[in-house]
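note to self: dont lose this again. the chain is below, predicted strucutre after it. 334 aa total, dont forget to put it in the shared folder this time
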Amino acid sequence: MKAVKVPLKQLNTLRKELMGKKIMDMDYKIKTDEYFGYIPIIENEYGSYEIVDTELDLLKRQPQNFKELLENSLNKNEMNDLKNSFDVIGDIVIVEIPPSLVSKKKDIGKATLKFSKKKSVYMKRSTIHGMTRIRDLELIAGINNPVTIYKEHNTRLKLNVEKVYFSPRLATERKRISDSVIENERILDMFCGVGPFSCVISKNNNVKIIGVDINNDAIKYFKENIKLNKLKNIKPIHGDIKEVYEDLKSLKFDRIIMNLPGLAYSFLEQAFDLIADNGIVNYYEFSNSYNQAIKRIEDMALQKNKKIKIINKRKVKSVSPGQYHIAIDAKINY
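---
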């Protein structure tokens, strides 16, 4: 292996110089002895420095993405069809594979498992469906255990990826809502799932929360997560919010979280009936702009004879080309 022989005191300076000029061979390790360093290079000479033949160790380079591990399994067009990203939930990875590559799912699964160093890789077999908001999954690598513990913002969340809806991509949004909460707020988490919003908020604030979800499995894990995080003043309720709402009419909430972007608009009437004056509705919707969501809120305010003030709006994440998971924060009867 060709290497520049350089006095130790000049080693770091020359290393940076060779890297900058792209002359250093990045596949090998630099070697040193008592007086000299040996920097691997791809040229046969460099300035006035002595070039020597020496044995150098190969670097164990970590792939930049899991696609690098599929170079012998997929052709260029197949590589372009495969998404670069995947969801990591605790020890589980969930990937989306286009129909054209389903026949290569085992290769993709093995590569993802090796790259991520997790325990299981599941492939999405459907979109989110049904009132319980779950999707069909198939194990394509690793051990078949869909139960895991996910960590976020000093909170641990136990869940079964086959039985409940959960998105790690909302971590920033959950932190943002938690940071905006005021001490002693009374909060209704209308579609709480396993409790990610509720648990993150409760872990970091002194509040009272009621969480409602129609998925009994989600409520089961929500209860476990309350114990797991040693939380207080949270009440999980299993049921449809339109039915549970009848039992909550005597209460007024300072904040209502409506993270059901596909259907939240159909529950705005219940939210307006349950929100306290100066309370905040954190409303979510799938849309290509803010206009539709804001109009829905304005129309309900007009129907309920209440004033509103839009205090924030943002795109939480992209869900498809031109379509976003958007958030609107509205103060009611301010």
